[in-house]
Request: fold
Amino acid sequence: MFDNRYGTGQSTLDGLIRATNVLLAGKTLVVCGYGWCGRGLASRAAGHGAHVVVTEVDPVRALEAAMDGYRVMTLAEAAPQADFIVTVTGDINVIDRHHFELMKDGCIVANSGHFNDEINLAALDDMASGVSRPRPYVEAYRLRDGRTVNVLAQGRLVNLAAAEGHPAAVMDMSFANQALCAEYVARHHAELVPRVYDVPADIDAAIAALKLSSMGIGIDVLSEEQRRYLASWESGTS
Ligand SMILES: NC(=O)c1ccc[n+]([C@@H]2O[C@H](COP(=O)([O-])OP(=O)(O)OC[C@H]3O[C@@H](n4cnc5c(N)ncnc54)[C@H](O)[C@@H]3O)[C@@H](O)[C@H]2O)c1
Reply:
């Protein structure tokens, strides 16, 4: 929730901007995948004045994006309108040959999801008559019909390649989580079986409380009356 939405959300835009220095305001930026990373990227791109389009394969996530105010459509529909297309799905070949065929001249594509699998660069290479490097981290593929498709950071994670990854102020929470979970496993290994466990809620709550206090933010505390009221079904139902 924090690392991916706020960390990847910000650092992905940072990577796009550092690599291209293109103004986002008024541009159409397509976010492929509306998970935690996609939500963060979409909201931050909208904050820069971009027209954000979301593509999804999960109907619930797609509906959430639509109700968050973004235009939702297939990537085939979005590709001809896009100035930027950024993948954050964890999936393979999300941007594929038939999408490159639809893109307008100068479209910029980047990945901030899984390794370098999300953009089918082999297909793009096959469609291209030549590749140039107008700026660091930008590869311009000249297609045989005269259009250019710009790929950032060779399709690798643009926030790590062209920017500096997540700021320390979000990684502190991720690392606190990992450290406290390792401690939890060390203390409780006897009663654990080999499977994936959720992070215990009290670890999440303890880290959030620490982070709030480091930010100088105080929150209210439940009174005993409120605690009883929230835990009961007898009052407030008739
Ligand atoms: N760049 C970074 O530093 C960084 C940091 C954290 C996570 N990640 C990576 O980003 C990816 C996304 O992470 P997340 O937490 O948002 O995951 P998530 O599972 O919450 O969201 C991924 C979304 O992509 C959607 N999706 C899958 N295939 C799709 C397709 N073909 N077209 C459109 N949408 C598709 C899924 O339905 C899902 O909603 C993961 O691969 C993760 O490892 C990168």
Summary: The radius of gyration is 22 Å. The pocket of nicotinamide-adenine-dinucleotide is lined by residues 4, 8, 32-38, 55-58, 61, 88-91, 94, 112-114, 157, 159-160, 165 (CB under 6 Å). Strands lie at 28-32, 51-55, 71-72, 84-87, 107-111, 128-135, 138-143, 148-152.
